[in-house]
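Q: What does the assembly look like in three dimensions?
Context provided by user:
Components: two
Sequences:
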Amino acid sequence: MKRLTCFVALLFSLIVSAGSAAQDASEPLLVEKQSFSFENFETLGGEVIPEVTIGWESYGELNEAKDNVILITHFFSGNSHAAGKYNGDDALPGYWDSIIGPGKAIDTNKYFVISSDTLVNAFPHDPNVITTGPASINPETGKPYGLDFPVVTIRDFVNVQHRLLTSLGIEQLHAVIGASMGSLQALEWSIAYPDMVERMVSVIGAGAMDAWTIMTLEHWARPIKNDPNFNNGDYYDAEAPLTGITSTLAMITQQAMHPVSMNMRAPKPEVLPEPALESVLNSTPVLDFLFANAAQRAPLADGNHLLYLVRANQLFIAGHEGDLASGLAKVKAKTLFLPAKRDLLLQPYLAQQAVSLLEQQGKTPGYDEIDGVWGHLDGLFSIQSKASRIEAFLETE
Amino acid sequence: MKRLTCFVALLFSLIVSAGSAAQDASEPLLVEKQSFSFENFETLGGEVIPEVTIGWESYGELNEAKDNVILITHFFSGNSHAAGKYNGDDALPGYWDSIIGPGKAIDTNKYFVISSDTLVNAFPHDPNVITTGPASINPETGKPYGLDFPVVTIRDFVNVQHRLLTSLGIEQLHAVIGASMGSLQALEWSIAYPDMVERMVSVIGAGAMDAWTIMTLEHWARPIKNDPNFNNGDYYDAEAPLTGITSTLAMITQQAMHPVSMNMRAPKPEVLPEPALESVLNSTPVLDFLFANAAQRAPLADGNHLLYLVRANQLFIAGHEGDLASGLAKVKAKTLFLPAKRDLLLQPYLAQQAVSLLEQQGKTPGYDEIDGVWGHLDGLFSIQSKASRIEAFLETE
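A: Here is the predicted structure of the complete assembly.
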């Protein structure tokens, strides 16, 4: 439990000395990872998962009325660790520690903030992650599910979180807030449980996947599917498809960034480096910067989990029925959309599409762009620039 | 010789009915593919290729003084076929037919326009392509070179073209013009042969590869390197790495486009399509649109050639010595840079970097952005919007 989520660790390591996303490390919130299990979960696709276990953590205190709850939903490569530290000597706090904590935008003196790991989390071998997916043991066979695990959707992630909240007696959400894939969950929450969600914040998000993004996600899946070790997802007794996973993680890392931030951090390209001239198979320091780092993280990920996450995202359209307008018609929550201006992965037009449809329905979604040089990752590293906007939104009646 | 270059054919098929890049199909210029060979070519890396053969074609007439020559250098997935048709019944003309021809911006009534296939062309199995690379027969062994072929650079492409022009008695270029990888060659021409090049036009181009783009290119290489059939480049007696090549071509196609143009052309994503819910391995119409098309073109490409092209581009820094400023210091040509406003592959900052350095050297590069919804491909499909700018530039003294 002392390890950091590696994806976050990598990205934070990139910004060491950048100073552009300084974390407030004073008085670290100490948090504890917990576990929640239940049986016979029926998916949106009509399949039943006999046992589901997910990890979760919380910051602040649940009040007696249980009406001060803010749910944080995590991004593709993330997990429940949104704020605080598990141990005082952890190198880094959770990914949104700059806005979650005592006196911060999401004030843990006022709110009970809770966050859980999703189903099919990308990094099931990260000791901080507790998830259920293809790498989990199928109680019917005593072996990992592999591709026998049912395809799951963002709605399923939401329904699992709903079970967790119900188990805690929580029937109302002051707000649900998420970045990237977390934004899909946040929006889906406000449609699946419209009477329960009072406020919804979508950070670097979308209302539905467009063809462009569905294709982008497929590029993340193909290196794993085409890895010689993949074996139709049945590799748990043999070598894992680590080469494919490495390609996938490297693509995700790059696409979540922007040329400005990448070029600031990466080694300067050399002029006619000897090894690169000797063979097309030889690497260079620039390539090592991206791929060697991804290779280090690959063993904590699972190939099948990544494929299931890709599929869950590809299938996303808020409400999962008819068209996007039909889904958004069910939203009762106040909404705020915060795309990142230089996002190359989920460009602002995706958030704008949802905002525009909500406005056509007579609603008043808030909209503001996060400025920064990180691209998609400005949703994490530059979120502090929208702290007061988020704080004010949470205080609206 | 009747086939169209498949990459171009695909992209043009995408815009059928779009009408945004209408080709002027009246009075098609009829052109003939020719071949040029020479021996003992020494690469920038100091290796010798015993025999080089490349294809070329021309439009217009070489005047007696041989001073009306415009060289067109091709993009990554392209070849010499920049304008006209090989046969009157070809479905489509060359890729820049909208600006090359009698009375057009690059007026073949005035200029002798010539274009050649590069070394290590991506599609050596396209019957319209004549190239030398790893798939060519090594005269020393009687078998394909595979990875014994020396790594080549953009400078080598230029030097081969120089040999072709010299063989035709051409010692002066009125202009050299290229898009994307063609822009790298055009700029390199003006540094390698500064007294020979009078004008240089860089379309959707760069002065040097930055770390970001070097990484992007590596994503194109890895599916081939990691294909089980790759066998260290030695697959010519066995199955080709077509699965990897398909991934690569699909990535290139997407990255050369923009969400707007892609979403206009691709099928509308379905809500909870049954096959996609049944297995993460199942495809959808959106994915087929991209990947099935790429799979169709894959047999005309060669895996090793793609790796060599990737490497040539990764190694590009204009002048190939010291830093970019040192290379650009040698430029004597008048220059014009035309990046595409919505380019996601070679974003305008790359052209701006070269322009800024040239200005610091007291030169007066022209700069203008191509507007459109195609992204990188606006350099092909929207080039007509800059026809008068190019025409005027070619008329400057």
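Follow-up: The first strand of chain B starts at residue 34 and ends at 42.
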